[in-house]
Write a structure and sequence with these properties.
This protein is of the alpha+beta class and 107 residues long. It is built from 2 helices and 5 strands, in the order E-H-E-E-E-E-H. It has a 5-stranded antiparallel β-sheet. Helix 1 crosses helix 2. The radius of gyration is 14 Å and the shape is elongated.
Length: 107
């Protein structure tokens, strides 16, 4: 049985939540995540991430904070029972992949 650990990070962006929801889906796809669930009504996207050294998942929640701001919360859960996890947090790497893809989207 794998040992898993979670890491969560929240960021507030300018723009309404209907703008950021589809961008989060596009960012996860661009970063190589396999989408497992997209719930537009709840503002929630779930996906899995697999590479040679990392195996885990990411849940992204998009919530309005005000009329023109949105909070995006990314919670990564990953296996930590391998030698690679001793050197770098797999959860941190999963969140970094998502954030880099989100920043790299046009527009």
């Amino acid at each position: 049985m794998a040992i898993r650990k979670s890491l969560e990070e929240s960021v507030v962006f300018d723009g309404p939540s209907p703008y950021w929801g589809p961008r989060c889906v596009a960012a996860m796809q661009a970063a190589g995540f396999t989408l497992t669930k997209v719930d537009d009504a709840a503002g929630r996207v779930e996906g899995t991430f697999k590479s040679a050294t990392i195996w885990g998942g990411l849940v992204v929640t998009v919530m309005p904070v005000g009329p023109t701001t949105t909070q995006i919360t990314a919670k990564a859960t990953a296996n930590v029972d391998n030698i690679y996890a001793a050197f770098r947090s797999p959860g941190r790497k999963i969140i970094e992949e998502f954030k880099a893809a989100l920043a790299g989207l046009p527009g």
